[in-house]
C-alpha cells in the first residue's frame, strides 16, 4: 500500500519535473519571441512619426540595445537631449530615455517642464494651426539647424496625437459668448432703473 | 517653512564624508540594502551617479527606480537631498 503511494508520488514528481521543464522552455521561447518582436518594433519605429522617417539614418532604426555608447549619445543629441557620459551604470537609463523619446515621435518633454508659460501657448497655437488645411505645409520634415523649433514641432505632433478628443476652439468661443450674454442679462436686471424692464405682473394674469 | 524631513536637514547640513547610503533622505534599510548590493555602499557613490547623470531629475529618478524599486516619494526625497547638498557644497 505504502509502496504504491510512493510510486505514485514518484510519478507525480517526474510529471511535475517534466512539466516544469516544458514550462520553462515554453516561457523561454515566449520571452525570446517577445524580445525579437519588441526589437522589431523598435526597429520599425513609431508609425505615427512617418513624416520624419524620410531623413532618418540607418542607425536610428537599430534597436537601442545594439547601439554603441557613442551612437546612443548621438541619437540622444539628435533628439535634443544633452547626455552625460554613457557608462555601465548610466547606459540603461539612457536606453530607456531614447526608447521613450522615439515612441513619443521624437518629442522633448523636458522643454515643457522648463518653459511652461511660453511653450504651452506655442503648443496651443500650433495645435490650432495644425488642425487647419495648412497642416501639411507647416509640418515640414526638414533637418534644419534650429533644434528648438524642430523639437516644438515634434512635441506638437505628440501633443496632437494625444489630444484628439479636446474641445475645438470655436465651441469654446461660443460658450464664452453665451456666458457673457447671461452676465449681461444679470447686470441689466441689477440696474436700479431696470424696474421698468421687469413687469409687475404678466400681461395674461389678472388678479 | 520647508517640508523637508529631519533626515534631509541632517544630510544637507554638512559635507557627507563617509556617510553610509542609508543617511540619504528617502533611503531606508531596504533601499539601502539594494543599493549596497549594486555597489553603491556609500552616499558619495550615489552622489557620483547623480553627478554623472548631470544632476538631471528625470534620469536620476529613473535610475533609482531601476536599481532599488524606489517609489515616487523616495525618488523625489533622494533627488532633492542630493541636489540641495550639491548647491551648498559642490
Automatic annotation (TrEMBL), chain A:
<feature type="transmembrane region" description="Helical">
    <location>
        <begin position="169"/>
        <end position="187"/>
    </location>
</feature>
<dbReference type="InterPro" id="IPR011015">
    <property type="entry name" value="LEM/LEM-like_dom_sf"/>
</dbReference>
<keyword id="KW-0812">Transmembrane</keyword>
<protein>
    <recommendedName>
        <fullName>LEM domain-containing protein</fullName>
    </recommendedName>
</protein>
<keyword id="KW-1133">Transmembrane helix</keyword>
<keyword id="KW-0472">Membrane</keyword>
<dbReference type="Pfam" id="PF03020">
    <property type="entry name" value="LEM"/>
</dbReference>
<feature type="domain" description="LEM">
    <location>
        <begin position="61"/>
        <end position="105"/>
    </location>
</feature>
<dbReference type="InterPro" id="IPR051656">
    <property type="entry name" value="LEM_domain"/>
</dbReference>
<dbReference type="InterPro" id="IPR003887">
    <property type="entry name" value="LEM_dom"/>
</dbReference>
TrEMBL record, chain B:
<dbReference type="InterPro" id="IPR004122">
    <property type="entry name" value="BAF_prot"/>
</dbReference>
<dbReference type="GO" id="GO:0003677">
    <property type="term" value="F:DNA binding"/>
</dbReference>
<dbReference type="GO" id="GO:0000793">
    <property type="term" value="C:condensed chromosome"/>
</dbReference>
<dbReference type="GO" id="GO:0005634">
    <property type="term" value="C:nucleus"/>
</dbReference>
<dbReference type="InterPro" id="IPR051387">
    <property type="entry name" value="BAF"/>
</dbReference>
<protein>
    <recommendedName>
        <fullName>Barrier-to-autointegration factor-like protein</fullName>
    </recommendedName>
</protein>
<dbReference type="InterPro" id="IPR036617">
    <property type="entry name" value="BAF_sf"/>
</dbReference>
<keyword id="KW-0539">Nucleus</keyword>
<dbReference type="Pfam" id="PF02961">
    <property type="entry name" value="SAM_BAF"/>
</dbReference>
<dbReference type="GO" id="GO:0051276">
    <property type="term" value="P:chromosome organization"/>
</dbReference>
Amino acid at each position: 500500500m505504502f509502496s504504491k503511494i510512493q510510486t505514485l508520488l514518484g510519478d507525480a514528481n517526474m510529471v511535475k519535473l517534466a512539466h516544469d521543464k516544458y514550462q520553462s522552455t515554453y516561457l523561454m521561447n515566449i520571452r525570446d519571441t517577445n524580445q525579437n518582436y519588441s526589437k522589431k518594433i523598435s526597429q520599425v519605429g513609431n508609425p505615427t512619426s512617418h513624416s520624419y522617417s524620410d531623413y532618418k539614418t540607418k542607425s536610428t532604426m537599430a534597436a537601442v540595445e545594439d547601439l554603441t555608447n557613442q551612437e546612443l549619445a548621438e541619437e540622444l543629441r539628435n533628439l535634443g537631449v544633452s547626455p552625460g557620459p554613457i557608462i555601465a551604470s548610466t547606459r540603461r537609463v539612457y536606453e530607456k530615455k531614447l526608447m521613450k523619446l522615439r515612441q513619443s515621435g521624437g518629442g522633448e518633454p523636458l522643454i515643457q517642464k522648463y518653459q511652461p508659460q511660453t511653450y504651452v501657448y506655442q503648443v496651443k497655437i500650433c495645435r490650432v494651426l495644425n488642425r487647419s488645411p495648412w497642416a501639411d505645409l507647416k509640418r515640414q520634415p526638414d533637418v534644419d539647424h534650429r533644434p528648438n523649433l524642430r523639437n516644438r514641432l515634434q512635441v506638437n505632433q505628440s501633443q496632437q496625437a494625444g489630444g484628439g478628443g479636446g474641445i475645438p476652439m470655436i465651441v469654446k468661443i461660443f460658450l464664452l459668448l453665451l456666458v457673457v450674454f447671461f452676465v449681461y442679462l444679470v447686470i441689466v436686471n441689477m440696474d436700479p432703473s431696470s424696474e421698468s424692464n421687469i413687469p409687475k405682473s404678466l400681461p395674461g394674469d389678472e388678479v | 517653512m520647508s517640508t523637508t524631513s529631519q533626515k534631509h536637514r541632517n544630510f544637507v547640513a554638512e559635507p557627507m564624508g563617509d556617510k553610509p547610503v542609508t543617511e540619504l533622505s528617502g533611503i531606508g534599510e531596504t533601499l539601502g540594502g539594494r543599493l549596497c548590493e549594486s555597489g553603491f555602499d556609500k552616499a558619495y557613490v550615489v552622489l557620483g551617479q547623480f553627478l554623472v547623470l548631470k544632476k538631471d531629475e528625470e534620469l536620476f529618478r529613473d535610475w533609482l527606480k531601476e536599481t532599488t524599486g524606489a517609489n515616487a516619494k523616495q525618488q523625489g526625497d533622494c533627488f532633492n537631498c542630493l541636489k540641495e547638498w550639491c548647491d551648498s557644497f559642490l
